[in-house]
Amino acid sequence: MIEEVPLDLGGGLTGILTRPAQPTTRPLWILLNAGFIPRSGPFRLHVDLARALARDGIAVLRVDQPGVGDAPPKRGDDVAVLVQGLDRLCAISGASRFVLGGLCSAADQAWKVALTDARV
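^ that's the sequence the OP posted. Answer follows.
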């Protein structure tokens, strides 16, 4: 049975971690929200995708970008905040590799984080 738990990643970042029934060594996927759409995704797309991936053995974190959804207003470098969130996520989940993505502005943020952090 998959498990969904809320996480505080620090820096005002919060997310929902969807874990597969069995532990995995596969990269943890992170789905960033886009624009003013919350972490559930457009028409709950991210919820459905996270649950489908968890059934296939992939852990998924749905997270609001800084300044969007439940996250507090932007206070500086979004990329640095997201990288700090990755550090906390490593400590919480045990993951060391990540697939980061999203739609629209989330794809832009994912690209910037991937250029900054070799874990992505």
